[in-house]
Design a protein that fits this description.
Blueprint lengths: L2 E8 L2 E7 H15 L9 H9 L7 E7 L5 H10 L1 H11 L1 E5 L10
Antiparallel strand pairs: 1-2, 1-3, 3-4
Helix pairs in contact: 3-4
Length: 109
């Protein structure tokens, strides 16, 4: 079974990566066992608000699906090793939820 992820990064690098599939499964079992969920999926609207109130950081939020065996640590390592390639890959395979990507080069005077 494939895993679904939410990833958020800005001009300084990766900020959030979350495995929705695992969290949803764990929350369901926690609810059945104890009556409440210890693990909650991130509220993507909170991530969007963070991005909107910090426009200088040029946030991007994507949701994407990866094959079985890929986990949160693999995605973090991908961003550490080659952040530009990681961002481009996720832009190509993922669904953009929010993007304030800077397309202009900085003007140096």
């Amino acid at each position: 079974m494939n895993h679904q992820f939410v990833v958020m990064w800005d001009s300084f690098g990766l900020e959030t990566v979350f495995d929705i599939t695992k969290a949803d499964k764990d929350a369901t079992w926690d609810t059945l066992k104890t009556g409440y969920a210890k693990i909650k999926c991130p509220n993507i609207l909170h991530l969007q608000l963070r991005a909107q109130f910090n426009p200088q950081r040029h946030y991007e939020i994507y949701m994407f699906e990866a094959v079985e065996g890929i986990d949160v640590d693999d995605i973090r390592q991908m961003f550490e090793n080659n952040p530009q390639a990681a961002a481009e890959t996720i832009r190509n395979i993922g669904h953009c939820f929010y993007s304030d990507r800077s397309t202009k080069k900085a003007v140096i005077t």
